[in-house]
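Is this the right way to post structure tokens for a design question? Let me know if I should format differently. Anyway, here goes:
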């Protein structure tokens, strides 16, 4: 049975089969190489059903046979692994001064990683046209490799509701924008699903699937870009909140008498531990990377002013992380974006604040670490969200091309 808001309804056979196909595909992803018998024993599906489902997945080129193994009791078994060679999942991140695009295959292996400059001063229509041009090039590259596009997910720094509408992206100057619908028009209805989500949410999905701590059930990802957002995974699931606005840690007030934030309030985490505070100045978007590199150079050289600035920003960041640790008790808080190269100097101050501010002993087991995914995390998380859709039963159809 499938439960809906109107009460229990009979489950459609196609729905049941799609669900079971997803169960088998996930098992192969997690346990390959494995046999049909392994799948049946672990999932509870009978052997005849598993054989039928595997045949379907092989026909779709999602799974392939890889030979026999004799390292088991009884007859040798034909082993299965992921195929997915005809497929690609695309993730894109829109930020204030760049657009990142990542394409991965079904197993998560990168097929393409691009980063292009982007002007956040443009209107929504101009921005969508620029992003659409980049996506078109990615799709055409995948088409030349004869890969079907499984889907596209786009990361935006701002409030994105559960329908995917960008309600407010202050650093981009966008409000109430249907980015997914606009991109579908710009791409001439490409034939694959387009999803839009907050950049921190997708960064968290990337960490859970691809990061150094992949598989963690309870983690928070902090973006560390011009804005500071939190993507929250609890009990293995991304938590968006009732309307999709969870994770706005950047506008938690740390000091009512602190500096003014662009949101109009004072002493927000973003203004006290964001990039401006970390650098001790407010550089233009195009200058941030150069300024970060200079701060790293000065910190390595032991420059007293730089070290003091980083320690102060680290303490403020630690206060914000302490709020997360007390409320959510995550296993991990992962610092991303521009925080990563400065993590050696930020982390000691963050950990020091955790020790004094988290009620539970040993900070409730919460560890703060730097991401290993770099600035591609949100884009990679977009690809992860597409793969999650496949794992949930949205299996591919025909080849998608953009003329």
């Amino acid at each position: 049975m499938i439960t809906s808001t109107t009460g229990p309804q009979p489950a459609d056979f196609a729905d049941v089969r799609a669900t079971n196909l997803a169960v088998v595909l996930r098992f192969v992803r997690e346990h390959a190489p494995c046999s049909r018998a392994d799948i049946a024993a672990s999932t509870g599906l009978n052997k005849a059903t598993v054989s039928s489902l595997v045949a379907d997945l092989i026909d779709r080129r999602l799974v392939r046979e890889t030979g026999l193994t004799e390292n088991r009791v009884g007859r040798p078994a034909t082993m299965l692994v992921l195929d997915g060679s005809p497929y690609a999942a695309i993730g894109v991140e829109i930020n204030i001064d760049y657009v990142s695009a990542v394409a991965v295959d079904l197993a998560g292996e990168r097929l393409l990683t691009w980063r292009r400059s982007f002007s956040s001063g443009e209107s929504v229509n101009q921005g969508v046209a620029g992003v659409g041009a980049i996506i078109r090039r990615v799709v055409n590259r995948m088409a030349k490799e004869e890969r079907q596009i499984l889907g596209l997910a786009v990361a935006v720094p701002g409030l994105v509701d559960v329908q995917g509408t960008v309600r407010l992206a202050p650093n981009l100057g966008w409000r109430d924008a249907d980015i997914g619908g606009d991109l579908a028009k710009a791409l001439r209805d490409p034939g694959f699903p387009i999803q839009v989500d907050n950049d921190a949410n997708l960064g968290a999905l990337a960490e859970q699937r691809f990061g150094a701590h992949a598989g963690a059930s309870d983690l928070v990802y902090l973006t560390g870009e011009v804005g500071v957002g939190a993507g929250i995974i609890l009990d293995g699931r991304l938590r968006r909140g009732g309307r999709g606005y969870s994770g706005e840690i950047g506008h938690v007030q740390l000091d009512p008498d602190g500096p003014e934030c662009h949101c109009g309030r004072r002493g927000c985490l973003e203004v006290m531990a964001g990039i401006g505070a970390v650098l001790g100045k407010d550089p233009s978007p195009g200058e941030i990377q150069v300024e970060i590199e200079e701060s790293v150079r000065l910190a390595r050289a032991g420059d007293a002013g730089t070290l003091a600035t980083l320690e102060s920003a680290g303490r403020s960041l630690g206060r914000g992380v302490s709020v997360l640790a007390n409320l959510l008790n995550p296993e991990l808080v992962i610092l991303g974006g521009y925080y990563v190269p400065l993590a050696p100097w930020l982390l000691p101050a963050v950990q020091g604040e955790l020790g004094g501010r988290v009620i539970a002993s040993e900070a409730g087991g919460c560890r703060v670490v730097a991401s290993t995914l770099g600035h591609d995390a949100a884009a990679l998380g977009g690809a992860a969200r597409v793969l999650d859709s496949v794992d949930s039963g949205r299996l591919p159809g025909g080849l998608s091309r953009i003329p």
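Format looks fine. Someone answered above. Worth noting: The two ends are 42 Å apart (CA to CA). Residues 304-328 form the longest helix (25 residues).
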